[in-house]
Amino acid sequence: MDQCVICGSTNIEHECVTHRAEEFGVRSVEFLNTPLARCRDCGDEAIRIPRYVQVARQIRDRLCALNRALTGEELALLRRELNMTATELARRIGVNPVSVSRWEQGHVPVQQVADRLIRTWTLAALGYAWRDIDRLMQNLPENGIDRVQIDLATGPDGEYWIETHHRFGGQDTVWVMTR
User: Fold this and answer.
1) How far is 120 from 149, CA to CA, in rounded Å?
2) In the Cβ-directed half-sphere of 142, how many Cα atoms lie within 13 Å?
3) How does pLDDT run across 116-162, given as a tens digit for each residue?
4) Are 25 and 73 contained in the same domain?
5) Considering the domain boundaries, does residue 114 fall inside one?
6) What does DSSP say about strands 159-164 and 175-178: parallel, antiparallel, or unpaired?
């Protein structure tokens, strides 16, 4: 952001921050070294997610590598990335759609079979070979990761801007994604 989209000022300061990736629908993912631009005149802030497509893939890959059960938010993100409705997920794993809703809303823990299946389908969609998926799934308790942190200062080129406007105050925020 070289010019503020709210007030037009060029009085912008830049820094790198740790950012919780709530715009992806999960609070458990942290971005390290997230570029932040802040207007010194009106206070508007914009973060930049470099290599957006690659970062989204990395989030899915790392969620599948967690050495703990998925949260409902994490399950919902992986389901959406597979272009699957909650009803379709319920049908595929043989549970009532209400169960999927309760998992995703965090009312009850995600069942182990649902956790394993969504991870397996996600890894397959990411292009992993079945033998590698089997190996990864068997080694999760010992070799999995305990949290998802993605360093945005490293990786291939390409970027998306995600701007958040705090000018409206309170909990009202607007996310605008442009290429």
Assistant:
1) 21
2) 4
3) 999 999 999 999 999 999 988 888 888 888 889 999 887 544 444 44
4) no
5) yes
6) antiparallel
Please, what's the largest Cα pairwise distance for the chain?
Answer: 56
Query: Are 107 and 164 members of one domain?
Result: no
pLDDT tens-digit map of 17-46: 999 988 888 889 999 999 999 999 999 988
In a domain? residue 3: no
**Predicted structure pTM score:** 0.80
Domain that holds residue 48: 12-52+151-178
Beta-strand relationship, 29-39 and 148-151: parallel
Does 158 lie in the same domain as 122?
no
Return the CATH number at 134.
Answer: 1.10.260.40
For residue 30, the surrounding DSSP H or E stretch is strand 29-39
Residue whose C-alpha is closest to residue 10's, from 35, 40, 36: 40
Cβ atoms < 10 Å from Cβ of 170: 6
